Amino acid sequence: MKTLTTFITFFVTFFCLVLLFQEAAAAPRCDSHDSPAPTNCKYGTVRDWCRNGVCAKGPGESCGGYWYEYGKCGGGTFCLCGTCIGCSTIDGTCSQSSPAINC
């Protein structure tokens, strides 16, 4: 009975480690870190996964993704169902329509 318990414990531990390493391997690799943001961004700037400054997305633009691969929304907007929703605090433009809540 003790051998079976040891085997099950080993198997569960091994399975959890495999899942953990799979997630870590899937993270994007960063060529640079903490790079300054561009100065000509229409909706302001945000930080990407690697903490580099990038242009923010505005109302109606695509956003989100597993590692924010489609971008982050600027001030006054938030990402809902892959689209920036709300009104930009930079230029006052607003999204024309909001997606269905059940994305």
Provide structural commentary:
With 103 residues, the protein is of the alpha+beta class. The chain has a domain at 45-90. Helices cover 24% and strands 14% of the residues. The protein has 1 helix and 4 strands. The strands form 2 sheets. It has a two-stranded antiparallel ribbon with strand order 1-2. A two-stranded antiparallel sheet has the order 3-4. A hairpin with a 5-residue loop joins strand 1 (45-47) and strand 2. The longest helix has 25 residues, at 2-26. The protein is elongated. The model has no long low-confidence stretch (mean pLDDT 81). Keywords: Signal. Residues 1-26 form the signal peptide.
- Global outline: elongated
By DSSP (H or I, 4+ residues per run), the number of helices equals 1
Element pattern in H and E = HEEEE
User: What is the tally of beta strands?
Assistant: 4
Low-confidence segments, ≥5 residues, pLDDT <50?
Answer: none
The level of helicity is: 10-25%
**Strand neighbour order, sheet with most strands:** 1-2
User: Structural class of the secondary elements?
Assistant: alpha+beta
Q: How would you sum up the major sheet? A: 2 strands, antiparallel
| Strand residues, percent | 5-15%
Radius of gyration, CA atoms, in whole angstroms: 21 Å
| Distance between the first and last residues' Cα | 48 Å
**How would you state the average pLDDT, rounded?**
81
Short description:
The chain is α+β, with helices and mostly antiparallel strands and 103 residues long.
